């Protein structure tokens, strides 16, 4: 159950459009800069999926995360469904854990991002096994997910504000219990 | 529990969909990406500008450090060049003196002090007994005679300049034109020389040292006659005012010669 952002429906849609534009812009910017530095890019799509999983009902969160990942696949020009399944996996773990976590705090943010990265890469591993292709190699697994986690976590405070501006505050534990 | 079944079922469905899509390598048409091309281009441009700005900043910092290092090196080289130039100047001076005045140069010395009295003209040199300097050694520069050493300490010595009132130098006309005279110092900056009446001396003549007194080598320039004083009826010698060849007030490096 999403808590609506105060304001008219058109305003919410406008905020959503602005958010998506900022998401594309910031992700492209980070990708270009991190390529130049030679480190994996922080994943703002993942942050968005984690943020949605903390705000929407579980099924809606899964569908939204999958849709978001699908958009990432389309814009990236890669195989469709890869990132979509990854973000759905991330959302699934966060949805599972959110009943045990409060809606704010550093540790909660850390665990949220950690579970998101873990869920995403578990799905990537599964798809690697399924496709019988070297999609994820042991070397990549040792380096990329930790760096993605660190980079993404560092951006979490800033991006969470944007998420709150677009989708409203997180669902509290009391609201979940209710 | 029932809720989780639904969640897992949805996830399984989505995962199955992805498995099918990835298995058949379904790719999105490029036209879909074209719609967001302006945003992508904007982010790439912004990132490139940020990267260039950072690179430029780093380069500027490096160049600034390089400039500082080069300036420091330049200062050191200038200082070294100055020292070498002075050394070359001194060696040239010795060469000129040994070829034109006397072959027995002892050392080059620097003037480290001057007598503050307006009535005296004495110079302190940074060479002394330790360097082999002895009393009565002549002191010269390429332009001419400066004076002679009158006292020696272990590390320094004092020179009695030609214009000091106590100074007396035997002189003669340059070019073997004859005549013997003695030039006495006349403060602040002139000499007064006396010749016998028969010497044909006139204004502009150059006086050089002669062997009188056994102190100075022969032929070192002493000065130029500036004025020939009129002779009285009872005078037995002709007196001339001589402008010294060397201005002791500006001398920095001098050469000490071995005595005769």
Automatic annotation (TrEMBL), chain B:
- List GO terms (cellular component aspect): plasma membrane
Gene3D superfamilies, sorted:
Rod shape-determining protein MreC, domain 1, Rod shape-determining protein MreC, domain 2
- Pfam families per the UniProt record, alphabetical: MreC
Q: Keywords in alphabetical order, please.
A: Cell shape, Coiled coil
Q: Which positions fall inside the Rod shape-determining protein MreC beta-barrel core domain?
A: 111-257
One Gene Ontology biological process: regulation of cell shape
Q: Which residues form a coiled coil?
A: 67-94
Q: What is the protein's given name?
A: Cell shape-determining protein MreC
Q: Which organism is it from?
A: Deinococcus soli
